[in-house]
Specification:
CATH architecture: 3-Layer(aba) Sandwich
Order of helices and strands: HHEHEEEHEEHEHEHHHEHEHEHH
Largest sheet: 9 strands, mixed
Helix content: 25-40%
CATH topology: Rossmann fold
Oligomer: single chain
Structural class: alpha/beta
Number of strands: 11
CATH superfamily: Alpha/Beta hydrolase fold, catalytic domain
Strand content: 15-25%
Number of domains: 1
């Protein structure tokens, strides 16, 4: 049994996690280049060796220690592989749960800073995205936006609740909207946290900076430099979730189609309530342009801009995010 850390140490670790890109938006644009930089014969995502997988799994377990203990762990079979899902009981067991989708090259532990406040709102599911480093196991190629939507739709169908609220950060936000515009069954609402390729394109600088971060055999410092850049210069700390993400970047060969920009026609046709929370200082895209597009096209929809937030917004503003989500859900569920 681990000896509990003093409160000051816990606070320090929390602040360090927030400064790090644990948001899971850490490498939001990496998939646009990694498909070409890391070609291999396998058509599905995989760990490059048993040793590298062992290293990642050890880091994953250590990062999960910062999460609450799930009351259920599910491995749900889909047409594209087995998807790992965790359930956490919340303050209101009768409320429609939130299903949390992390960013690229990350997994469920990136939500550690958000869990206490969100669990005060309602029950939660977290998911390890299929085809990403984590506990989900891809078995069939995912080569289109339709494929991305299909496997997640099958996950929702396997859950016992009649509907869920989707909450995705970075590429997880794109994944949620991509499903909603194609197969909206069982989706009560969608909440997106600084999503990429949803309301506008990635910035040119973001795409260029992914190149050195996308190659496993390049120095770690190059990937750390990109991580710090996406967090607007915040230092990269050696904390459990950071170790997990670094292990995944080095150990896992990603085999996914790049996210295709959600069209204005698709957004206009979407009749599910959407809350878009935009990081006003995000370097991944033009935040003002994205917020304007979201306000213009989302109906019904709400748009919030956090002016000083970087793409690591989830770790920077966990309490404010939970409060905005609680208010949004209260309004649409009246």
């Amino acid at each position: 049994m681990r000896t509990p850390l003093p409160r000051t140490d816990l606070d320090l670790r929390s602040r360090r996690r927030r400064r790090w890109l644990a948001a899971g938006g850490i490498l939001a644009g990496i998939g646009l280049i990694m498909l070409y930089a890391l070609r291999s014969p396998s058509p599905v995502g995989h760990f490059t060796s048993a040793a590298s997988q062992d290293r990642f799994l050890a880091a994953y377990d250590r990062a999960m220690a910062d999460m609450p203990r799930p009351d259920r762990t599910l491995d749900l079979r889909t047409s594209y592989g087995v998807v790992r899902v965790y359930h956490f009981a919340g303050a209101d067991p009768a409320a429609v749960p939130l299903l949390l989708l992390p960013g690229r090259v990350s997994a469920s532990p990136v939500w550690a800073d958000n869990m206490p406040a969100l669990l005060g709102v309602r029950g939660l599911y977290t998911i390890d995205l299929l085809g990403e480093p984590g506990m989900s196991i891809q078995s069939r190629p995912i080569t289109s936006a339709e494929d991305h939507a299909r496997w997640l739709h099958e996950v929702l169908l396997a859950l016992p609740e009649s509907e869920v609220h989707l909450f995705g950060m970075s590429i997880g936000g794109w994944t949620a909207i991509n499903l909603a515009v194609r197969q909206p069954e069982k989706i009560a609402s969608v909440i997106v946290l600084d999503p990429i390729m949803t309301f506008n394109n990635l910035s040119v600088e973001a795409i260029v900076r992914t190149i050195p971060a996308s190659v496993r055999w390049f120095p770690k410092a190059w990937r750390d430099g990109f991580a710090s850049w996406t967090a607007n210069g915040a230092p990269v700390e050696d904390v459990p979730v950071a170790v997990m993400i670094e292990a995944g970047m080095q150990a896992y060969a990603l085999k996914l189609s790049a996210p295709v920009r959600i069209t204005e026609e698709q957004l206009t046709a979407l009749d599910i309530p959407v809350l878009a929370i935009i990081a006003g200082a995000s370097r991944m895209h033009d935040s003002a342009e994205g917020a304007e597009t979201a306000r213009r096209l989302l109906e019904p929809g709400e748009v919030k801009v956090y002016p000083d937030a970087s793409h690591a917004i989830n770790g920077e503003h966990p309490g404010e995010i939970a409060a905005d989500i609680s208010g949004f859900l209260g309004r649409i569920e009246q």
